[in-house]
Amino acid sequence: MSKASFTKLINSEKPILIDFHATWCGPCKMLSPIIKEVKEEFGDKIRVIKIDVDKNPELSKKLEIMSMPTLMIFKGGKNTWRTVGVQTKSVITSKIEESLIA
Questions:
Q1: Which one from 10, 25, 68, 96 is the annotated catalytic residue?
Q2: Residues 6+ apart with CB under 8 A from 59
Q3: What distance in Å separates the CA atoms of residue 65 and residue 99, rounded to the nearest whole number?
Q4: Disulfide-capable partner of 60 in 3, 31, 65, 96 (CB 3.0 to 4.6 Å)?
Q5: 8-38: pLDDT as tens digits
Q6: What is the pLDDT of residues 44-63, one digit of tens each?
Q7: Catalytic residue list contains 78
Q8: Is 76 a catalytic residue?
Q9: Is there a contact between 51 and 58 (Cβ–Cβ < 8 Å)?
Q10: Which own/partner pairs from 41-45 qualify as long-range (CB within 8 Å, at least 24 positions apart)?
Q11: pTM for this one?
Q12: At the fourth CATH level, which superfamily is domain 3-101?
């Protein structure tokens, strides 16, 4: 993903949950069904994007993605939340709800 397309993506007023993952990452595989449930729960109120760090090394370096999975929420071009590791659905949904209100 180019820097320009990423910038355009995160400049949306609709919150965007980005899951930075790797195909070989065990915790990423554990998180995947949780992310799917979150997407189904929020529908078109949010966007959910999965970015493979191995296929996007420049973006991963720019955002300092050191561990996977890394979850980030962007709204209006600003990073409103970032966490590393597997999170519960309730933690993720509460952070998305906060970004919908803000």
A1: 25
A2: 1, 3, 6, 51
A3: 21
A4: 65
A5: 889 989 999 999 999 999 999 999 999 999 9
A6: 999 999 999 999 999 999 99
A7: no
A8: no
A9: no
A10: 41/93, 42/93, 42/96, 45/14, 45/15, 45/100
A11: 0.94
A12: Glutaredoxin (3.40.30.10)
